Amino acid sequence: MKICIIGSGYVGLVSGTCFSELGNKVICVDNNKQKIENLKKGIIPIYEPGLEELILRNIKQKRLNFSTDVSSSIKNSDIIFICVGTPTIKNSNKANLKYVYKVVTDIKKNLNKYKIIVTKSTVPVTTGDQIEKILTSKKNKIKFDVISNPEFLREGEAIRDFMYPDRVVIGTNSKKANNIMKNLYFPLIKKTNRYFHTSRRAAELIKYASNAFLATKISFINEISNLCENTNIDVKEISSGIGLDNRIGDRFLRAGPGYGGSCFPKDTRALVATSRQFKTNLSIVKSVINSNKSRYKILISKINKIMKNKLKSKNITFLGVTFKPGTDDMREAASLKLIPYLINKGCNVSYYEPTGIKDNFNNDKIKYINNTKEACKKADLIIIHTEWNEFKQLNLKKISNKKNYKIYDLRNLYSPVKMKKNKINYFSIGR
After folding, report:
1. Of 198, 230, 262, which residue constitutes the final position of a domain?
2. DSSP assignment of 93-158, as one string?
3. Whole-prediction pTM
4. Given 198, 221, 243, which residue is the final one in a domain?
5. Is there a single domain that holds both residue 389 and residue 365?
6. Is there a catalytic annotation at residue 263?
7. CB neighbours (10 Å) of residue 329?
8. Per-residue pLDDT tens digits for 108-145
9. How do residues 159-169 score in pLDDT, each as one tens digit?
10. Residue among 228, 263, 347, 376 flagged as catalytic
11. Are residues 57 and 29 in the same domain?
């Protein structure tokens, strides 16, 4: 099939590359000329394991192309995927759909035959209805179908998630469009029952509901971890114990600094905004948002306690600053709140991050060091912020030259028992 992907960011680039890997002819479109030129050379703008190899292979096989020409790309395609961002509107919880509607306007101008228009971007309920209205014209008699096909890609695991999906959700009332989409995804679903056909509005809401539920699990276990610390219980035992219940499951039950990234924060907010539009109270989701928002205050309180409220002039090192491993994404990472706080308290902050220097820390007082050993050498406090594999087997007994250095493990990578046995000043979450 001839596929046009509009928006060559995280979702668009991964989806387009994977579709080409399945044998389709794909053109990825973006209005950023430099990005497109780089992509043509196999230079990718994001950190995603395995993606570069796939891009280079499919460029070579002439199945994957990149362009800034929206018009011709639309005209020469059978299926158009809208993969542009839907960030939160400033001073609002609502999703900003201006990029989506700009794409829809471009599609309207270039409809030349029957096409399927797919929203892969995360959009509020009824967005598909609005897209359909925009595309419908008395002058234009060309038929089309607007469907919802939400993505469920985890950063750092995106290739696997696409190729081995838990489910493929297709929202449409069109039998023709459903059959075409089922054929498109057939290589991924032929041996499973993971193709889920539903209404367009239901598909739109499934994405938000999924993310809100996962965010709820994270906030829930983080709150339980607070109780565990006050009752001398290991939160890992609680996570394991409740996770064995098939009704609950063990995924997303790891205590930590709170959820971040490109999806959970904005999607929970957008879901609440949608609920207000339809005069529905989502009190649980609101509580989840508030719980996660206040999470950093608990971490700051713990840091002050660990350092006995003596932060001025202390050397503090962060191991990892991204919101999770396997990605260079800094959006809503806990480090973005913790580091400025420590700087304001007069600390000397340095960090090592496997994906390199972050422009988010545009401050001379924050120093990037390109390896763990050097970053930790003079540290009074080491904060394990992101659970990269290379941080899981460190020699913590000799990691700093300081006499009474301390370690605050926000990801519970190490055993408190072993740390105590080795006489290491070790602190963790909910233990």
Report:
1. 198
2. SSB--HHHHHHHHHHHHT--S-EEEEE-S---TTHHHHHHHHH--SS----EEEEE----PPTTSH
3. 0.93
4. 198
5. yes
6. yes
7. 21
8. 999 999 999 999 999 999 999 999 999 997 777 899 99
9. 999 999 999 99
10. 263
11. yes
